[in-house]
Design a protein that fits this description.
two-stranded antiparallel ribbon, 2% strand, single chain, mainly alpha, globular, 463 residues
Length: 463
Amino acid sequence: MLTHISIRSHSAWMDIEAAFQVVGEFGPYQKRAVTVLVLAQVYMACQSMLIVLVGYTPEYRIEHQKDTPSSQLVLQQHVSFTEDVSTIVTEWFLIKQQAYKVNLAGSLFFTGLLVGNVIFGPLSDKIGRRPVYLTGLFFEVIFGYLTAFAPSYEVFAASRLLVGLMNGGIGLVCFVLTQEYVGKSYWAMTGTLTSMIFAVGITLFGPLGYFIQPWRTLAAAANSSGVLIFLLSVTLPESPRWLYSQGQTERAEEVLQHMALRNGNNANKLILQRVGSAKPGNRGNRRAGVLQLVVHPVLRLRTMVLMYVWAGRRKSMSSFLCLAGFACLCTTFVPENAGTLLSLALLGKLMVSAAFNIAYVYSSELYPTVIRNAGLGVCSMSCRVGGILAPFVPSMRALHTSMPFTIFCLSGLSAGCVGLLLPETLNRPAAETLEDLSSPTHSRVLESKALLYEDDNRKSNPK
């Protein structure tokens, strides 16, 4: 009798994906939660584009041009702007020798973005998605208001660095939460929606800047939406997938049962099985950290490939990258004044954009839950490095007119081919712990060989 009860009790246990089938993969509660996170993308997009409008340089005249102004103060006394606009340029006279400060403020924001990608990812893998997201959003709003009311350029520039730091961090955590609140079959949809709404936010910022002046009012208005997003985000729960990967099955069950209740489903008997890091005595989760991206053989290979590619699934992403490369290759055989050149260049841009949207979803599926944010953070960091290097490519026309497109061609083709080394993730369960990577379901041949090689080393060099 006891054996029978034990078997029935054990059969009621389920993994996280089976639990979402009971709770509802994308029920009304998840739709509301994802909506809040998606709206946060509009706020972050406005912060990203702020410098474009507040740093606008209107036309100006300098009186008594025969005499070179000896100081910035003297220059201000002889400058008159021909347009009636209010920007940081007109307020702090960022012209002539001071003009570089506008671009510097923009660079500081993206520097903060890069650093935030690296810091916030591993942090959210360690202490949780929700506290990192809420803390980052709170301070981004604070620093955003510091931007709007900055008494000097130096304070303004420092605030842009800090806003970028928060923006880069919570952007990743926000994306991961939209994935981990829903069933895996909806990951592609929520990931694409997140990228699309960020682009919508960029589009909406233009009309906002047209109707709202001066620049301080615009900065405050763009930042105020963050207050509403923060108040709505306070009600969001911790990621049940992260709780499950950390072995906190009881808390994960509570969150899932709360979701089920709000979705109108009955999940009173929902019991998660203890697997991976949740097993007593298993130290796999304790070892999880950004260092595992270098130490773990499977993660090392995946990260190296993704850092180069970060630009879906495997075949889709590789195909788009290769098509982008071929489009760039074809431009080298077309005369510069031909309309076909522009068409091919736009086609290459279209293919790269498609691959980039897939890369976010694909990367989140390739990394286990315990290290997902750290992996995305490192990949996103490499994306920023690519953005820093890209503006220098057109200058290589000095060597040969076809050199820029040749470089883009080789980058696209090689990234597409290297991407084929990664495993397919479509219609396959997501890995939750580092131990799950050992399963044939989550790896390809090269990765399996890497694991075997690591096992052999452990056996030959026991500690």
